[in-house]
Inverse folding.
């Protein structure tokens, strides 16, 4: 039996296979539009071919398939979601637009020259119905079903494709939301209907409504895709378990996700920091930048002292998404980013991307705009005959023509100069995005290592490291399927939570025991769903506490087994200590209250090996494949090209040089040297101008 | 200007580090405080000054709380001289000895020493849930003098060399209502100072004292150069702006005016408030530092937006503020100042922005919907405990700027968006009040080529004991936030108490009774407009009508666009005729 992870990015679909021998193999296929499930199957088919099996044989042997998809994020970012309507509590239709009174989310308060927020659901599609639930779940005004029918009919007339039902205090009592959704669904036929309590059952209406509105907006597109995919793989003989990668770093089933597709925001990128941590730590670095560059976007994570940070304070563009997410910063730049000249005559790269259709000009599929990949080809960095192992033949003439006519001529430069300018521009942009998550939070990049993945990452990362004076770069052997690797490196499991507010001084031990018991038996049921024996599951308990009156909680560990009063006293003591560690003080004189009880249930990771390579000493000449003319620093240099598959542990290469792999290309510029480790990860080190070595 | 040898990466890392330390300080307060106003609405601030009282980092936060706080730091350095030590914390709220804003804003200062030398001073400030005085919470409109407004705390040490001074805190907490709550919030503010010290010491250790201080100098010089550049590009001349508050809460219905003459001369900007009204008996007076912070904040809006996150002492060097003693913009002891963060503080900002909008119509900025706050105190029948409550939810939207409409929902010009709105669900859980409605109202925004953010209708039902409401942090029943460059001002506001069908009007700067089960309602005007409404893009007018931000009538009368709502289309012929 094998396990596979498939990460569908904006340009490429990555497939990583862990076979029954414990070896990892990676495959890549172009992402397809409008139906990404086609590209998904192409990638699986490639893997099947490599294992000399039919698609049916191969898929029939897969016990677990973990899938990350960029579709949710892209639908929101590209604003091509559904025409969405809202049904909400009478008197409150503007909550979504009033927000918390923000003038501008990203800009400083001293900048007032910013466009006002444009809500996902315009005011005329936000309808009100009579109903009211109070803070304690009590019904103040019954749901007026006639109002709901009228609202649904009006929205039907407006032609909405999706609907979100958002009522006040629905986290405390969801009856009205459920009933209204039911009535509306009947009237609106097959329109996608989401409810706020199902998506984020916690208090504070704007955060909940906003998250739910995002979910409804992207819902129909994501649902269509997931159902198509399910059908396709089942027809192709898949009998195992399909799990989707969620934004919080855990996984869930398709049926769980469809009513709450917002949990698929950042699915894929959420896995990368875990991969970076595992790779970086192996190379001896604890403070890391995780950098993943694909065809259309870059994803950046910052890992300090080995911690992969999560946040519930996330915004995606101008939308507040209040679910817990792995903290990853995304920006529009990749191999497919188009270079263009703006109205001031300045060279710009992105955010528009040529994607995989038509793709860069050098793909020769009708693209005429010069992209970053075209510039890579012009400079000799990527091989025309060995892109994706030769699967996508690149047409150097098309690349040169695009760079020459669109950039070089208007700017009065030579073609290689223009290509160089494109790379410098995109590297500067990416460097700036990295400072966004590090320097601008006060961390010095010069203390860190950068772990780079994605198909385009290993080509560009050295130039970014140069600009930021980051001394060490780690390029993993699984660079090309970086996020998919993260999916193997992380825990698989689920989070469970219960809210119950109790003061510590008169806490009811029986209630606490019951809450944990409930969650743990629910979790063992969940394991059955994931086809894991409950006895193999690992349960970790936590509780969230605060001083009475505070607005935020602190999470502390709770021991397993049957709890005693003494256990709870220790939990409270741990809370005091944790509060002090986080905020420099505690308040033992003040009462403490328990709010939330949580269980995180995880299943053991399957053991896996990265193929180890033999020791070979520093001399890498046995792997030398050929020489090629490449441009570095404005000069053409006869550059040695190494075959990645033949490099051995301990080999050392001094730049300029290039390593060709089937799924990626590593560029080692002058001033960089590269050491190959026993797992064929490449450790690049640069000589900094002021360094002593 | 400088020959400092600093590598650009260290400069940029330290520059950003100061900003993020200040943000982290805010985060610590947010996470640990218990007052709704501090932790949720963010009426608090954090910042860093150097040992010469020069502003190093000014992150997000209400303008009144720190753009002028170098005056406070100066006062403290001067008062304590050599008697400052590692581990000291100084607390003050005194407008007349320490240049604080008004009494509820308690500031905590911590001198930061490195190897025995004073290098920085950190400050956190937050509006306490109570500071004693005639009425809970602050903003009582009719105090006899400053002493009636609450406990005055001149700069004193509340921590001495790391040791808490129990006697001092006993005195402070013994003079406020809800002492346990105030105690938590005080610790939250002081914890943020400790975090700041930890971060700054780590930075000094890493880069060395000289490098950090060079970076601070360099950052200030660079900001000064950039701001001077900005001012040089403005046309020389003197420009006038004015704005009024409804009254001073003591002499009723007599408006109080703030008048600003902004003079641009080469690379210098002079903001002169000499023509403003004399200081008042009532609570609207600003001390000099209060006026300074608002006027300087207003001028920052006209500089290159790329500079916005980085303003520091350097930015302030080219700006001179004139406000004669005894004016409402430079009040003298024992004048009351309780209302000044809202009025006339807001008017100082509005008058400054109005004047500079005339100098630079292509950067014109309209004023925002007026603050519509209040403080009330009562008993929560669910617990039997007393509570004090305030709100920002009733305010209308922000003003337009040249090129963009105002933001719907943004509130409180004096916070420029850094003070936030609450949450209906949170309020109902914490307090015995039920929100009845909370939504935009058509036609209640200042018209313009770019219109102001919409006005608001907000109603809440009292489910607790009878309460008295101090409407001191409300304004705009009689006076309007100015529009700019031909745009209309933000509309007037109304307030009322509803008992069944019976509606009793209520007014700003008064005490209002709201009994159990009665409803307090506020109809609040939105922001001012920029540019001639008859030049607004008709398609935008159509969208506004469809979305019910404005009515068909207003589209026709004010924007001169004729709309058929049935077909959601513009009658271009009639529109052209009207617009000729």
């Amino acid at each position: 039996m094998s396990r596979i992870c498939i990460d569908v990015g904006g340009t490429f679909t990555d497939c990583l296979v862990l076979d029954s021998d414990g070896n990892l193999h990676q495959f890549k296929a172009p992402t397809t539009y409008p139906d990404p499930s086609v590209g998904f199957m192409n990638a699986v088919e490639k893997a099947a071919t490599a294992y000399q099996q039919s698609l049916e044989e191969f898929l029939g042997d897969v016990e677990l398939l973990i899938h990350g998809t960029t579709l949710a994020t892209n639908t929101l970012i590209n604003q091509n979601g559904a025409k969405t309507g809202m049904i909400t509590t009478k008197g409150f239709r503007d909550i979504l637009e009033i927000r918390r009174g923000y003038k501008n989310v990203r800009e400083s308060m001293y900048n007032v020259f910013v466009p006002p927020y444009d809500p996902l659901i315009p005011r005329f599609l936000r309808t009100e119905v009579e109903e009211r639930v109070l803070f304690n779940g009590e019904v103040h005004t019954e749901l007026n079903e006639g109002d709901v029918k009228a609202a649904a009919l009006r929205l039907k007339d407006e032609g909405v494709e999706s609907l979100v039902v958002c009522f006040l205090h629905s986290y405390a009592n969801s009856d009205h939301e459920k009933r209204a959704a039911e009535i509306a669904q009947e009237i609106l036929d097959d329109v996608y209907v989401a409810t706020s309590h199902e998506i984020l059952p916690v208090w504070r209406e704007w955060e909940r409504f906003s998250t739910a509105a995002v979910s409804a907006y992207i819902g129909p597109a994501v649902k269509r895709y997931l159902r198509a995919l399910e059908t396709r793989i089942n027809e192709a003989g898949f009998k195992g378990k399909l799990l989707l990668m969620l934004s919080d770093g855990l996984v869930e089933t398709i049926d769980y996700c469809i009513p709450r597709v917002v949990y698929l925001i950042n699915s894929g990128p959420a896995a990368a920091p875990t991969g970076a941590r595992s790779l970086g730590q192996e190379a001896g670095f604890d403070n890391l930048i995780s950098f993943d560059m694909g065809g259309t976007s870059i994803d950046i994570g910052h890992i300090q002292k080995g911690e992969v940070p999560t946040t519930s304070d996330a915004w995606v563009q101008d939308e507040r998404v209040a679910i817990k997410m792995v903290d990853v910063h995304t920006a529009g730049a990749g191999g497919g980013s188009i270079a263009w000249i703006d109205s001031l005559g300045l060279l710009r790269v992105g955010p528009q991307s040529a994607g995989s259709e038509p793709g860069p000009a050098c793909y020769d599929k009708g693209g005429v705009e010069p992209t970053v990949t075209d510039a890579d080809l012009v400079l000799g960095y990527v091989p025309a005959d060995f892109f994706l192992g030769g699967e996508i033949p690149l047409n150097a003439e098309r690349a040169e023509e695009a760079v020459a006519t669109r950039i070089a001529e208007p700017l009065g430069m030579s073609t290689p100069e223009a290509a160089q300018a494109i790379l410098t521009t995109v590297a500067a942009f990416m460097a700036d995005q990295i400072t966004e998550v590090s320097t601008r939070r006060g961390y010095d990049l010069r203390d860190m290592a950068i772990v780079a993945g994605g198909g385009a990452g290993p080509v560009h990362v050295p130039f970014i490291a140069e600009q930021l004076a980051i001394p060490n770069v780690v390029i993993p052997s699984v660079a090309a399927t970086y996020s998919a690797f993260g999916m193997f490196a992380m825990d698989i499991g689920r989070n469970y939570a219960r809210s119950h507010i109790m003061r510590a001084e008169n806490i009811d031990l029986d209630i606490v025991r019951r809450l944990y018991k409930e969650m743990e038996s629910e979790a063992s049921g969940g394991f059955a769903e994931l086809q894991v024996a409950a006895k193999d599951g690992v349960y970790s308990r936590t509780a969230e506490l605060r001083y009475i009156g505070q607005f935020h909680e602190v999470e502390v560990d709770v021991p397993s087994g049957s709890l005693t009063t003494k256990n709870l006293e220790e939990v409270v003591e741990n809370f005091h200590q944790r509060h002090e560690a986080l905020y420099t003080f505690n308040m033992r004189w003040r009462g403490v209250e328990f709010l939330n009880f949580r269980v995180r249930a995880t299943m053991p990771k399957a053991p896996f090996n990265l193929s180890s390579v033999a020791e070979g000493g520093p001399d890498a000449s046995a792997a030398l494949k050929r020489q090629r003319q490449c441009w570095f620093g404005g000069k053409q240099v006869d550059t040695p090209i190494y075959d990645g598959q033949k490099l051995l542990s301990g080999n050392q290469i001094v730049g300029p040089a290039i390593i060709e792999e089937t799924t990626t290309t590593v560029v080692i510029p002058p001033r960089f040297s590269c050491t190959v480790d026993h797992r064929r990860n490449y450790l690049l080190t640069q000589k900094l101008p002021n360094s002593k070595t | 200007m400088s020959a400092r040898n600093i590598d650009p990466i260290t400069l940029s890392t330290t520059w950003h580090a100061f900003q993020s330390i200040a943000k982290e300080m805010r985060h610590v307060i947010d996470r640990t405080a218990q007052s709704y106003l501090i932790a949720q609405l963010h009426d608090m601030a954090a910042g860093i000054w150097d040992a010469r009282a020069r502003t190093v980092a000014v992150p997000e936060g209400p303008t009144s709380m720190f753009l002028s706080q170098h005056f406070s730091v100066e006062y403290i350095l001067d008062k304590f001289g050599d008697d400052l030590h590692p581990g000291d914390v100084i607390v003050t709220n005194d407008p007349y000895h320490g240049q604080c804003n008004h009494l509820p804003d308690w500031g905590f200062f911590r001198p930061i020493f490195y190897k025995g030398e004073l290098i920085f001073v950190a400050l956190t400030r937050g509006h306490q849930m109570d500071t004693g005085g005639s009425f809970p919470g602050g903003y009582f409109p009719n105090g006899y003098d400053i002493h009636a407004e609450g406990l005055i705390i001149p700069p004193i040490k509340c921590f001495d060399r790391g040791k808490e001074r129990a006697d001092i805190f006993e005195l402070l907490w013994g003079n406020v209502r809800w002492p346990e709550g105030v105690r938590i919030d005080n610790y939250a503010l002081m914890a943020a100072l400790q975090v700041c010290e930890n971060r700054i010491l780590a930075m000094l250790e890493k880069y060395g004292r000289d490098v950090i201080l060079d970076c601070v100098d360099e950052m200030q010089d660079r900001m000064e150069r950039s701001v001077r550049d900005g001012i040089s590009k403005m046309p020389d001349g003197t420009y006038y702006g004015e704005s009024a508050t409804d009254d001073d809460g003591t002499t009723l219905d007599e408006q109080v005016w703030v008048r600003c003459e902004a003079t641009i001369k080469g690379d210098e900007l002079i903001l002169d408030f000499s023509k403003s009204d004399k200081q008042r008996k009532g609570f609207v007076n600003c001390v000099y530092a209060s006026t300074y912070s608002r006027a300087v904040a207003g001028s920052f809006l006209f500089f290159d937006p790329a500079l916005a996150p980085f303003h520091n002492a350097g930015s302030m060097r080219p700006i001179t503020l004139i406000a004669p003693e005894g004016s409402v913009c430079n009040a003298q002891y024992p004048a009351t100042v309780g209302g000044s963060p809202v009025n006339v503080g807001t008017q100082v900002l509005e008058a400054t922005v109005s004047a500079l909008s005339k100098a630079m119509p292509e950067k014109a900025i309209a004023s925002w919907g007026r603050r519509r706050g209040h403080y009330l105190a009562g008993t929560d029948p669910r617990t039997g405990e007393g509570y004090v409550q305030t709100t920002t939810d009733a305010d209308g939207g922000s003003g337009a700027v040249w090129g963009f409409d105002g933001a719907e929902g943004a509130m409180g010009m004096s916070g420029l968006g850094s003070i936030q709105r609450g949450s209906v669900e949170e309020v109902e859980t914490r307090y015995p009040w039920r929100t009845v409605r909370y939504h935009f109202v058509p036609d209640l925004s200042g018209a313009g080529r770019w219109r102001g953010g919409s006005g608001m209708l907000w109603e809440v039902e009292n489910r607790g004991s009878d309460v008295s409401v101090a409407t001191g942090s409300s304004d705009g029943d009689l006076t309007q936030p100015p529009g700019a460059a031909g745009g209309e001002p933000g509309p007037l506001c109304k307030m009322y108490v509803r008992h069944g069908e019976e509606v009793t009007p209520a007014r700003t700067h008064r005490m209002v009774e709201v009994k159990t089960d009665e409803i307090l309602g506020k109809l609040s005007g939105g922001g001012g407009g920029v540019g001639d409404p008859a030049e607004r893009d008709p398609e935008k007018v159509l969208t506004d009508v469809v979305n019910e931000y404005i009515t068909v009538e207003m589209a026709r009368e004010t924007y001169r666009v004729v709309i058929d709502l049935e077909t959601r289309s513009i009658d271009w012929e009639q529109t052209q005729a009207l617009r000729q």
Notes: The first helix of chain A runs from residue 36 to 50. The longest strand of chain A covers residues 492-503.
